[in-house]
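re: that chain from earlier
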Amino acid sequence: MTSLTVNNQPVRYRLPPDTPLLWALRDASNLTGTKYGCGTGDCGACTVDIDGRAVRSCQVPIGRIEGSVVTTIEGLSRDRSHPVQQAFLAANVSQCGYCIPGMVMAAAALIQKHPDPSEELIRAQITNLCRCGIYPRLVEAIQRAARAQRGEETIPGAPLPGTDPADAPRTVPALVPGAMAQDGR
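^ sequence. v structure.
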């Protein structure tokens, strides 16, 4: 049995120690926000935080991280209030959304270690792949999240899941150049 702390809860996996963390999270813990992408550690869709580091969970056998603290996208913030989640929403970073949980986890770990990341550092550290090409919005969103985490900027709250579109804020996020307001102005 492998014992971990997952999203602040003690977990004992009755799985072989060579089971990739990705499958322990998805299949045994039903934490499906961590995505399977390539299975080789190249795409980053499966990125989680292990002891403060962004790690590709498809490449980590659970037996190797006995006693570690693992945070998944579900444990980062269920109400989307983490600065990275807020900045991604405000910048309309997501397109298809498949890579976003891994990107969010990688970005959260980055700004935890580097509270004021440069564009160069972001591009060097966030190596997750996105077929939709969100990269131009990604850098600014991560820098905005870092400013918010440092208390230098406030990011308006995103509507919670299930919010009726009529009740959602009617403002265009500041990071969308050339976008029209929802009321046509």
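Residues 135-149 form the longest helix (15 residues).
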